[in-house]
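lol so apparently i was supposed to do this last week
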Amino acid sequence: MSTVSQTHTAVPATSVKGAARAGVMARPGAEAVQEKGWWRAHKWLLLRRASQLGILALFLLGPWFGLWIVKGNLSSSLTLGVLPLTDPYLLLQSVAAGQWPYKEAVLGAGIVAAFYLLFGGRLFCSWVCPVNLVTDAAAWLRRRLGIKGGKVPSEYTRYWLLGLMLAASALTGSLAWEWVNPVSMLHRGLIFGFGLSWGIVLGVFVYDLLLASRGWCGHVCPVGAFYGVLNKTALIRVTADKRAECNDCMDCFAVCPEPQVIRPALKAVAQDHPLILDQDCTSCGRCIDVCSKDVFRLTTRFDRSES
Amino acid sequence: MSTQKNTRPSADGKSGQARRRFLKEMAGAAGGACMLALGVGLYGTEASARPASAIRPPGALPEPEFLAACVRCGLCVRDCPFDTLKLSELGDNVATGTPYFEGRKVPCEMCEDIPCVKACPTGALDRELTDIGKARMGLAVLIDQETCLNFLGLRCDVCYRVCPVIDKAITLELVHNPRSDRHAMLLPTVHSDACTGCGKCEHSCVLPEAAIKVLPYALAQGKAAEHYRKGWVEKEAAGGSLIGEQQQLPMRGLEDRKYGDTRVAPGYVPPSAEPSRPAGIDSGWKP
Ligand code: SF4
Ligand code: SF4
Ligand code: SF4
Ligand code: SF4
Ligand code: SF4
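anyway here it is w/ iron/sulfur cluster bound
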């Protein structure tokens, strides 16, 4: 192994590419930890976890400690008795099923949709959604155990499902996706009690771990697909502006939940600017963390500069 | 935006092979999604039944509309001061995440300001309901006349006493007790024009298993055929019989009585009839 790292000094053996050459298991991000230190190499991950758990904590303060800052759950909530927030995809299903909701719910959905339309829909996936903790855990374990194979469905499955669930809502007259939606099952479960819904969440974990790498969030979840549509005009974007420094270690591809979005920006495929504009990018910042060369940076969609 | 589109294989126009691969992937995606959607749809249709003991909150839309309107947020649950309402969990056999209560466990206290309805952001709980007395969550039914203590001739009356709409929603109907033949029975009787389905009666029934239960309307009530008419109602509405007054024939042996009076005095023995067998304790028979 030492000989390998000597011959390929540019790509360390812990990286995806180095490990592939050496025939050992990759530890994407290890080089970044060495170069930048543990905290900087986990900055965005820690911030995201703080956001995810913080939002969950706001919902739990009420039922656990009687501090009612936020009531309800991600489906619909009321903050400090004045701010209504409602999941717009849920409300669309309700409308498809033939119900026109009260103005509180419509206003709540409008606020949520406007926020994500402006800043980026899939911020929901990486900074809010509780299932992200589950699928991230599955992806991490899959990497650590070196589990390969399984069958990943097409990444367009989620967009079909997004539309089909609206159609199914219209046909059955009920909120079709809510019969199984792991996002609300998990969030509601934590706040109001699980029953057997933990089984659905466990199913998602096992699916991602054994059957399909990043299968759920990257290929199936229609909620993520809906927020992906809202992500088309995202203000917050990641840029690979120092792509000239890239040493092809492939670590960013290994940790990115939507690896297909990186290539156009990093390798200038079918675009010349280094901005990741694909609607599937969740702005999670993992690529920023694991890159030892600091190629990536969080910025706005208008910043096409390259350094 | 156009550059972004280019990252998708669809616009990889140069190669027909890429397009074919893309179309194949799309077909696979559509097929997979259809299977999943079908599964979810079938499961949803299957799982939208509701057990008879699960009662929806006041103001809830009829069940099919309710399932389309309720986003399962639990805001109604949070604003119920008596912790009556509960969001269904997977395995409760009520559409997962929707609010319900069971009268036997925690009944609805019929809050005058109906906070649960006010809290609902979607209209699954209808704000047209402003008078809790007009709520129709379900209908109480004295379902077991064999164990109800009042039907056995005792004076339990608990369901009657606890009813928030006492003497309107539930009354005690005086009936002769044929078993003792000398006592009365006071039968708890529910009236659908006033019962809100709050479940207080079911909750407080003293039996180990309540003899009075609140049921969803669809289970609690029968339905008369559209064309049925009640003669006495029609007669009163019309101010007289629609088919002319009926012939009143004399009843032999009762000619001195008013029409319809067939009462028999105690100890009365019909002429030319054998003394009847003693019936009850108070039959007047002496050894
Ligand atoms: S894809 Fe779905 S489950 Fe995954 S993070 Fe986004 S909303 Fe949550
Ligand atoms: S490109 Fe970077 S920010 Fe976007 S999803 Fe992948 S890892 Fe996250
Ligand atoms: S009326 Fe009052 S007690 Fe009954 S469900 Fe509503 S909030 Fe709860
Ligand atoms: S507040 Fe309304 S939408 Fe929310 S759970 Fe209750 S009935 Fe459903
Ligand atoms: S459910 Fe029972 S207690 Fe409630 S109104 Fe009806 S009869 Fe009265």
